[in-house]
Amino acid sequence: MRNLALSLALVIGLASSVLAEDAKPFSDAKEIDLVSLLPTPPANNSPQMQAELAEILTIQVTRTPEMAARAVADADEDVWRFADVIDNPKFTKENLPKFAAFFDRVVATEGAVVDPAKDFWKRPRPHLYSDLVKPIVPLSKSGAYPSGHTTVGTLMGIVLSNMVPEKRTELMARAWEYGHNRIVGGIHYASDVEAGRIAGTVIAETIRTHDDYKAEFEAAKEELRSVLGLSHV
């Protein structure tokens, strides 16, 4: 019986993963061309890049175990990383199916917009530039600029803040930490994170004008506020 339950859990988890990967983006790089919008990343061996590398190496030897743990946990790209701010036991995927499906599309949008820009600039990750850098988060083969994690963290923070404006300040502070944790984790430079914050903001402001986004946003917001016991706004 236990093996059957475990098998069912694995099947459900796999199905959820496939659904998330198949989520349709609200936009793409044809509509939001980050190569045209963002500044060129600092050149290798430039003073700015050396300063950003120094920042990573300083954090590497000064970060606390708590900082490291947060950075590792924030490697997950999903809206549930904001659970500490929402602070409600009902804030789960199981309780919020419309909300979860909506944010699957939000997360998919980041990849559709950011990946072509990463491929265009092909900025090497810090550990590929200097063997002094020892990342504590999963490695990636994609370019460093702009930071996709920071982009999606900023994007999710803005969208979630529009659903729960009562916690806008705390949610955006969490989104900022989410991006900074890519530096703490040793996988991104500060300029990658800054570009990601710009990208996330641009994406958020662009997709909110789309009719499909508007409809799904309102349904997800209604479900979220109802489940969490919040008043309608």
Give structural notes.
The chain has 233 residues and is mainly alpha-helical. It has a single domain (25-228), classed as Vanadium-containing Chloroperoxidase, domain 1 (Up-down Bundle). Helices cover 65% and strands 0% of the residues. It is built from eleven helices and no strands. The protein has helices at 2-21, 34-37, 47-62, 65-73, 83-86, 97-121, 126-129, 148-163, 168-184, 190-207, 211-228. The longest helix has 25 residues, at 97-121. The protein is globular and about 50 Å long.
Low-confidence stretches: 1-19
**What is the number of strand segments?**
0
CATH class division: Mainly Alpha
**N-to-C series of helices and strands:** HHHHHHHHHHH
Q: State mean pLDDT (0 to 100 scale).
A: 92
What percent of the residues sit in helical stretches (DSSP H or I)? 55-70%
Give Rg in angstroms: 18 Å
CATH architecture: Up-down Bundle
Shape: globular
Note the beta-strand portion.
Answer: under 5%
The CATH homologous superfamily is called Phosphatidic acid phosphatase type 2/haloperoxidase
The class by helix and strand makeup works out as mainly alpha
Ends distance: 46 Å
How many discrete structural domains?
1
Note the main sheet: none
Fold-level CATH name: Vanadium-containing Chloroperoxidase, domain 1
